[in-house]
Amino acid sequence: MQAKQAEQTGAGYWVSQIAVSAFAAIVAPTCGIVLFIVDEPGKGVMLFLIGIMFLACLVWLVRAYRRMSKTQRAVYAWAITQQHGTNDQPGVGSDFEMMACADKASKGRLTRHELLHLAARRPENPYPGTMPPAEELPQRHE
C-alpha cells in the first residue's frame, strides 16, 4: 500500500533522482581527485567534470521539486513513467522529449486526448491529477 502511495505522489521518482544525483555529485569528484593524484590525471579531470555535471543536475532537481506542488510532482513522475517502454511497447521518444512532455503535463498543458493516450500505455497506473473535461464538438444549428 505504501509503495502505491509513493508512486501516486511522485515521491519515489523524485527521491531516486535526487539521491542518485547527490551520490554521483559527491563520489565522482572525489574519485576524480584521487585518480588525478594517484594514477591518471586526464581520467581524473574527466571524472571531476562529470561530478560537476551531476551537481548541476542536483541543483536543477531540487529547484524543480520545490517549485512544483505535490500534484504537479505526481503528474510529472506519472508522465515519465507512462512514456517508458514495457514488454509489449517501446518507449516514447528520447529522454528530452519525455521530460518536455512531463513538464507540459505538470503545468496542465496536455489535452485530455494526450493524457488518455498516455494513460492507455500503462492502465494499471492511474492518472494522479484531475482529468480535463472532454472537449465538446461544436453544435450545428440549422
Structural class: mainly alpha
- Estimate what percentage of residues fall within beta strands: under 5%
Q: Helix and strand succession? A: HHHHHH
Number of helices: 6
Q: Sum up the overall morphology in one term.
A: elongated
Q: Spans with pLDDT under 50 lasting ≥5 residues?
A: 1-7
C-alpha-based Rg, rounded:
20 Å
Mean pLDDT: 85
Please provide the count of β strands. 0
What can be said about the biggest beta sheet? none
**How many angstroms separate the termini?**
55 Å
Helicity, as a percent range? 55-70%
Write structural notes for this entry:
With 142 residues, this protein is mostly helical. The protein has 6 helices and no strands. It has helices spanning 2-9, 11-38, 41-67, 70-83, 95-106, 112-121. α2 (11-38) runs antiparallel to α3 (41-67) and α4 (70-83) packs antiparallel against α5 (95-106). The relative contact order is 0.12.
